[in-house]
Amino acid sequence: MNVQAQKLAEVTEVAGRNRPVTPIYLDYQATTPTDPRVVDAMLPYFTQKFGNPHSRNHQFGWESEEAVEKAREQIASIIGADPREVIFTSGATESNNLALKGVMGFHKDKKNHLITCVTEHKCVLDSARHLEMDGVEVTYLPVQPNGLIDLAVLEAAITPKTALVSIMAANNEIGVVQPLAEIGALCRSKGVYFHTDAAQAVGKIPMDVEAMKIDLMSISGHKIYGPKGIGALYVRRKPRVRLEAMIHGGGQERGMRSGTLPTPLCVGLGEACAIAQAEMPEEAKRLEALRDRLHRGITERLPEVYLNGDENHRLPGNLNLSFAYVEGEGLMMGIKDLAVSSGSACTSASLEPSYVLRALGVNEELAHTSIRFGLGRFTTVDEIDMAIEQVVSAVSRLRELSPLWEMAQEGIDIKSIKWAEH
Amino acid sequence: MSYSDKLLDHYDNPRNVGAMDKNDPSVGTGLVGAPACGDVMKLQIKVGADGLIEDAKFKTFGCGSAIASSSLATEWIKGKSLDEAEQIRNTQIAQHLSLPPVKIHCSVLAEDAIKAAIRDYRVKNKRADAAE
């Protein structure tokens, strides 16, 4: 075995299967490969143009600063913001932490109420929990069965003590897109800041901080074909959003986030935004067509497959399906040449199935059978057709193996059986 | 997660998949686990006149480890007496398949399924004896 084949074998062994096959990547909501055009833009800033962007006294610093400021403009442009409103961070997790803890930290003496939603990313929910320990009151809004929040419920939750509403733009598991403009208008009318975690949305669907009246927005690099380790937080200037810094030091990023900016990563995020902005209209259409082809291809041949999340208000590249009577992890093992993810308990350390699906009211049985297909820039029609074949064949085989499928065929209601939960 | 070749073989080529008539007095049926927990195993045994398990069938809803554990269980109990089959421990199944720690519960479920099938057979036949 030559070195490369050996390496490949090792990689696939780690992935759980002992065969040297490169699977089809359908997990674009987990992360994306860095676009080669982005890498090209970044490379000079590792070696020749290595200056500290904060060095004010020489050429090295100036060219680095220029590159960082160009990136800031590219990021601002894709969300309709002013470049001065863009703060670089290490990623969307840090952006979300800074938005929640920063805003609540600054305002909590006067307004100590935060509103968020049960289907948010863990970094928002965990920041909210942390704030609760500091005495902040948090309301966790429920979602409707389609995954969207109810605006009337949000309105009823806002009190004179509410400082911030944090609702994600697009959900990472089920891909549903919240009614951002309506939420923004409501928050503005009540004098409440609106933060949105847009890690999954920026570059995929049009985002506009003015039209949507967004005050803070979290952005991730690696979800949009940029590098890992970089993100941004949009912080509105007019009317000005005040927040407390979490990382203290040299006062970079208008004092909101100290630390030397990683020029190559900033350049990469900027370039990723520029490419996404230029290609979005066509790319969204292409992905929607591929996603619908996948959905149709599967449901035409398999009964009892259910879509999780709203059918219309969703990301072009997301399809989350429950395959009744087939457990998600068992299914992933059967579609070994597809890299997907599952809402099944077995994929995580905890034994609970996906909290997002549970919040939608999807029953636990079905939550265990869900698979998320994430399509992206490098997904092809051939890959989708291969995915359909694999899914149909694996689900058919596993249903023949499933005692629940057998009972369903015999007309036995699974809920009528007294199960011994373990 | 990395799985052993033995486990993958049982997942790809499960032994003794199927169902037997649960009303047949010589058949014992065990149904363990719960759909809400993501694992359900149905294991059936057919006991011959000599008291030995002459056939075993299973169906499992669950992850690859659960499918492999139940497949292996059916393979092991065939030809054994009920008392011998009852001696099979989950640790033996886990060891044979090299189950990772988070998957030990799959082997526990397989042991439970064997015991539940034997129990069902015994209850049924006690009743049959009493009726005679």
Order of helices and strands of chain B: HEEEHHHH
Radius of gyration of chain B using CA atoms only: 14 Å
Structural class computed from helices and strand pairing of chain B? alpha+beta
Total beta-strand segments of chain A: 13
Assembly state: heterodimer
Ends of chain A: how far apart? Answer: 45 Å
CATH superfamily of the largest domain in chain A, by name, is Type I PLP-dependent aspartate aminotransferase-like (Major domain)
Briefly, what CATH class of the largest domain in chain A? Alpha Beta
How many runs of DSSP E, i.e. beta strands of chain B?
A: 3
Number of helices of chain B: 5
- Biggest sheet layout of chain A: 7 strands, mixed
Strands ordered across the widest β-sheet of chain B: 1-2-3
CATH topology of chain B: Sufe protein. Chain: A
> Which range does the strand content of chain A fall in?
5-15%
* Individual helix count of chain A: 13
Order of helices and strands of chain A: HEHHEHEHEHEHEEEHEEHEEHHEHH
Largest sheet of chain B: 3 strands, antiparallel
Summarize the largest interface: chains and residue counts: A-B, 36 and 32 residues
Looking at the structure, what is the overall shape of chain B?
globular
Concise structural overview:
The complex is a heterodimer of chains A (about 425) and B (about 130). Chain A has about 425 residues and is an alpha/beta fold.
